Amino acid sequence: MSVHELLVTYTPYKQISIFEKTFFDAPEDLARFITLMASGRAPGLYWANGIVFIYVPLSASVTNIAKELIENGKQYWLFVGYTLMPTCTKIIETKEKLIVPVIDVSSNEILNQVTKWLKQQK
User: Fold this and answer.
1) Domain count, the chain
2) Which of 12, 52, 60, 63 could form a disulfide with 85 if both were Cys (CB 3.0 to 4.6 A apart)?
3) Does residue 16 lie within any of the structural domains?
4) Residue 45: its pLDDT value, please?
5) Per the domain annotation, does 108 fall within a domain?
6) What is the pLDDT at residue 54?
7) What is the DSSP string of the chain?
């Protein structure tokens, strides 16, 4: 049995369109918001470039969205919640004792560009 050589390519998004963005005054406010949004389960937050954030992408299962993604490299985010957090911490704990994990995604080129843009929006 012969093994053929696999071609691996990297095709980053060419555009991310954000429909709604909300700036929160503090990381704890964002942590409270996403816990309520997720019906009491604490999903994780992302961190890069001094910004902690969460995003909700529009599903690519919709035919037109999948076509935009494949043909034009366009991704759509329904919502981004974000705030300043100069250094990454592994968790955010609120005064109500909600504990929300934070994932450092600063090695991701695309999310780095998004957080740089978000910093300019504040």
Assistant:
1) 1
2) 52
3) no
4) 97
5) yes
6) 96
7) -PPPPPP------SEEEES-EEE-SSHHHHHHHHHHHTTT----EEEETTEEEEEEEPPTTSHHHHHHHHHH-EEEEEEEEEEE-SS--SEEE-TT--EEEEEE-TT-HHHHHHHHHHHHH-
Mean pLDDT, the chain cut into blocks of 10 residues (122 residues total): 82 94 97 81 88 91 81 92 97 92 96 96 80
* Domain assignment present for 67: yes
pTM for the model stands at: 0.85
CB–CB of 121/21 below 8 Å? yes
On whether residue 48 sits in a domain, the answer given is yes
Looking up tokens 């929160």 gives 24
86 in Cβ contact with 102 (< 8 Å)? no
Q: Which residues form the domain of 70? A: 21-121
